[in-house]
Amino acid sequence: MLQTFGTFSLTLAASSAFVGVCLLVLGIFRSDKTLAAYGRRCVWITLGGSTASIVAMEWALNSHDYSINYVFRNVANATPRLFTITALWGALEGSILLWGFVLMLYMAATALRFRSRADDPIVAWATVVQLLVALFFFVLMLGPADPFAATGGIVTPLDGSGPNALLQNHPLMAFHPPMLYAGYVGFTIPFSFAIAALVTRRFGEGWLADTRRATLVAWGFLTSGIVLGAWWSYEVLGWGGYWAWDPVENASLLPWLTATAFVHSVMVQERRAMLRVWNLSLVIATFALTILGTFLTRSGVIDSVHAFSESDIGVWLLAFLGMVVVGSLALIAWRGDSLRTPGRIDSPLSREAAFLFNNLLFAGFALVVLVGTVYPLLVEALRDQRLTVGEPYFRSMTTPIGIALLFLMAVAPVLPWRATSTEVLRARLLLPAVCGVLVMGSVVLLGGDGIAQVAAFGLGAFASAGILRNLWMSLRARRRAHKEILPLALVRLVRGNPRVWGGLVVHLGVVAIAVAIAASSGYTTRVEAQLEIDDSITVRNYTVTYLGSVESKSSQKQTVKAQLLIEEDGEKVGVYEPAISSFPNARSAIGTPSVVTSWREDLYLSLANSEDDQGKIGLTVSVNPLVLWLWIGGGVMAFGTLLCLLPKRREVLE
Amino acid sequence: MKRGRWIVAAVVCVGAIVFMLTQLGSNLDFYRPVSEAVATRERQGSKEFRIGGVIKPHTLEQQSSATRFDLTDGDATVPVTLNRTPHEIVAKNPDACIPIVVRGHWDGETFVGTELIVRHGSEYDDEQHSLGDARDDLDCLVQPVEV
């Protein structure tokens, strides 16, 4: 029943997307507003079909309808409710289903926003592009990634095999993937407007203004999704880190890098009408990289290039990626002549020059990650040799780029447009630079080493001091002029130019993250130990004593918890319990680390193995400094993005 | 003036790309199934790489500081010494066929491992996670191990 209903909803969504494309294109060419209006209505029908398919799948998951193969493979009777709901995005077919739904939500929001300008050709063409993307994904779901495929066999199974053990271990699983999708999918909107701008020859700044919000929303979701993913990795995987330059992680970072370049370079085009081709290319690259990311994570190609041919989905995604890239490049080439702009950069010490350097660095960063991620696939495909690119490659390449970006982040926001004088620079940069140098000095005095780490601390201080100085000066000027109390002045200041202040708040979040990465990558202490009951181990100023193990069993999993007494400088902190769970359905063991978190550092406890024949547990203890600031920084970045989205309030002069 | 700037930019770009490729070349981390590792043993010397296979049932021995076992892919078998306690799933199921990857190097005909990674289904190993549906359990001695 649900199966039929689900397949019907998907068919409805796909066919209305197809009809919508045809009607809109016909409407545009014949200048027939009625046809185009019918075409636009198809967006709502597609949204309806997509919503119905999501409802059908959730219904099937929660009622354990094992006649649907996806349900059978991804939930079991014993799976807790939360993870039954999240099973929707636990595997390929379901996540494509969610992808389609999120896309339809974005499209519906765009349709509402532009309802008064619906006949504007740029909006109409953008809708066509969006519907084409939707059509691709719905056809994918009707073909190679059918979420409602039957389980097969004569008898419907009584119990399912349950989700991947890793996916039912932590509530973050409920938030991380949807956030990431909301980020990935959102870039369809700026992409569609970029293509529409090329088709309609309106390369001006209009399409940028039209898609500013959608881009920021997508960027904010993608940023949060990446940070949550790192957090999940840290809290669940138990290897002590949060980022391993794994292809799956890189897949989410790649579009983030080009999108971040874009949100910066947009400002140059808005202000100086330069970098038009570059901006179009960045948007197209971002969209293409989200498709590449989906291909990398969802086709099985990472496990083995040869696994890729086992399912059709890889071929489909690769073909779609090829169409997007070739089609977009052809459009840009076709419009090439009229894209040229007369503007030029007057001085290397100007805001636009800083944005240009920022963009080159982000593009370089993306290239480095792309090469490191795709190279192993190419080698395996061409030479049948399996390899991975080691972390040192990524670290040695991205550290200098990251440091250079931090430097730009400290300097660029105070640079005026066009050109500047040394007096202005001195006035604006001297104090922050002194702060940076002082912090660097203190880090070295406190025993910090490593050029990159010390530089990151110093530049972080430089950047944040610059932002705070800027805020302080603006507040002071405002309070003098308007005689306002401080909180009111702050609110009005931000409301007066939310984009600038929101951006600076995002920068503060980046500083927190940069400092946390520098500290945790450079100053971590890690010790592995074998402990019997009552054995202790001391790591820095923490003492860890093994008290004994507790076993618990549920139908879902069997868990062994090691009870560890933690003392800091001789004072009792508490008993912490890192665990290992075995999942009978998945024949795998998953460690659950236990983390003692503080502002200054984390004590990270991870059980390598439970008691062996000699009664010893294997324990990994590490002290990771400042990790909490990664998650705080992520929150600050999300908050800053929200500020950017506030409408600008014009003040009424009294 | 303008030409000079272009030359500088070109030199910087070429330099950066050369640096990137050198870094890439020196950080390649090869994976070889047991039989391929055996076939190329001479060439490997003591270079580090990852070897993949399953632990041959009934060969796992735990000594005070090391673990020994035979690693096989059905075609070839290699004795492995691991200088640490094995992963939980290996320690608790010494006789099950568990697909694993060991990082290490050749020492004569023995493979000396420094790190053991357990493959969970086909989707996950200890340090590198990927989301997705786990493939059915591998019947390791019948099917070759995919990594």
Give structural attributes.
heterodimer; A: 654 residues; alpha+beta; 4 domains; six-stranded antiparallel beta sheet; four-stranded antiparallel beta sheet; 12% strand; B: 147 residues; OB fold (Dihydrolipoamide Acetyltransferase, E2P); five-stranded mixed beta barrel; 27% helix; disordered C terminus
List the helices and strands and how they pair.
The complex is a heterodimer of chains A (654) and B (147).
Chain A: H1 2-29, H2 33-62, H3 69-74, H4 81-86, H5 92-113, H6 121-142, H7 176-186, H8 188-200, H9 206-237, H10 247-272, H11 276-298, H12 313-334, H13 336-339, H14 351-383, E1 386-389, H15 391-411, H16 422-445, H17 451-482, H18 486-496, H19 498-522, E2 525-531, E3 536-539, E4 542-553, E5 558-568, E6 571-576, E7 579-583, E8 588-592, E9 594-597, E10 601-609, E11 617-625, H20 628-645
Antiparallel strand pairs in A: 2-11, 3-4, 4-5, 5-6, 5-7, 7-8, 9-10, 10-11
Helix pairs in contact in A: 1-2, 1-6, 2-5, 5-6, 5-7, 6-8, 7-9, 8-9, 8-11, 9-10, 9-20, 10-11, 10-14, 11-12, 14-15, 15-17, 16-17, 17-18, 17-19, 18-19, 19-20
Chain B: H1 2-26, E1 28-33, H2 34-39, H3 41-44, E2 49-55, E3 61-62, E4 67-72, E5 77-82, H4 88-92, E6 99-107, E7 110-118
Parallel strand pairs in B: 1-2, 5-7
Antiparallel strand pairs in B: 2-4, 2-6, 3-4, 4-5, 6-7
